[in-house]
């Protein structure tokens, strides 16, 4: 079984105290994870250390940053390096979330550099891709998302790409309450996996978890995660509510 992941993306929400309470509640209410199941909390940068401490010793529970900078160190005021994450015990980072692409003008090319530096430091990237509404309406979403993969991750070696997580997040479904249907998500995620087969091979494509993100909630998680090419979710809004996120974890296949 491929790794199945319930990943929370808190974005710029919660105080430290609220975050700690949420994390503790989710962990105390959630089921015993199987070997191939993981929970990841992508928390705001100031809370990374506290979050790492709270999950210490918990099997298959990891803390992620929401972004990193593509340089090792230096005069980049306000940015966060992978070495800093490593020194805290952070194991994962989101890279290329559509909000980063839109509000902070991150390009596929910049994201390729972020992917490289993360892998060089053994930080697992959760690479986000996905199309805006206009592209979906024009029916060209497959080509649009494939280009994101080509320009940001398909330069990696077979061994490197086997270490990353992909999150397909159609922009029109993020925070809108409008979820892609399980058929729509399965169709494009199957296509993305076929692109990995094309650039690498079947065995490699079979390893890489592809998450779905965009208005995942307790009510639709089971249906989405039940699809063969959906290996869990990257969850924004619903990850801020204990019972919602616990149900989403329960929905992992
Ligand atoms: P959402 O966000 O679940 O609130 O739609 C998902 C994401 O942006 O990762």
Notes on the structure:
With 253 residues, the protein is of the alpha/beta class. The chain has a single domain (4-250), classed as TIM Barrel (Alpha-Beta Barrel), CATH 3.20.20.70. The protein has helices at residues 16-29, 48-55, 82-88, 98-103, 108-120, 133-138, 141-152, 158-161, 182-199, 202-207, 218-225, 242-250, and strands spanning 4-9, 37-42, 61-65, 92-95, 124-129, 165-168, 210-213, 232-235. An 8-stranded parallel beta barrel has the order 1-2-3-4-5-6-7-8, surrounded by 6 helices. Strand 7, helix 11 and strand 8 (232-235) form a beta-alpha-beta unit. Helix 7 packs across helix 9 (182-199). The chain is globular, with a radius of gyration of 17 Å. The termini are close together. The model has no long low-confidence stretch (mean pLDDT 97). Bound molecules: 2-phosphoglycolic acid (PGA). 2-phosphoglycolic acid (PGA) binds at residues 9, 169, 174-175, 213-216, 234-238.
């Amino acid at each position: 079984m491929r790794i199945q992941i319930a990943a929370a993306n808190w974005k710029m929400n919660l105080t430290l105290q609220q975050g700690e309470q949420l994390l503790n509640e989710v962990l105390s209410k959630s089921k015993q994870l199987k070997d191939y199941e993981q929970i990841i909390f992508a928390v705001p940068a100031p809370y990374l250390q506290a979050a790492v401490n709270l999950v210490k010793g918990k099997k298959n529970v990891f803390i992620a940053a929401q972004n990193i900078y593509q340089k090792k160190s230096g005069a980049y005021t306000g940015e966060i390096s992978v070495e800093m994450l490593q020194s805290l015990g952070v194991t994962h980072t989101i890279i290329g979330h559509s909000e980063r692409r839109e509000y902070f003008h991150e390009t596929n090319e910049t994201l390729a550099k972020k992917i490289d530096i993360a892998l060089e430091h053994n930080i697992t990237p959760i690479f986000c891709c996905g199309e805006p509404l206009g592209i979906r309406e024009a029916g060209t979403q497959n080509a649009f998302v494939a280009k994101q993969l080509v320009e940001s991750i398909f330069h990696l070696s077979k061994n490197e790409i086997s270490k990353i997580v992909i999150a397909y997040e159609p922009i029109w479904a993020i925070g809108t309450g409008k979820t892609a249907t399980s058929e729509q998500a399965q169709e494009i995620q199957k296509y993305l996996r076929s692109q990995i087969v094309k650039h690498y091979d079947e065995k490699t494509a079979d390893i890489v978890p592809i998450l779905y993100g965009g208005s995942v909630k307790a009510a639709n998680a089971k249906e989405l995660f039940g699809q063969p090419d959906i290996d869990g979710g990257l969850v924004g809004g619903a990850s801020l509510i204990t019972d919602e996120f616990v149900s989403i974890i329960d929905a992992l296949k």
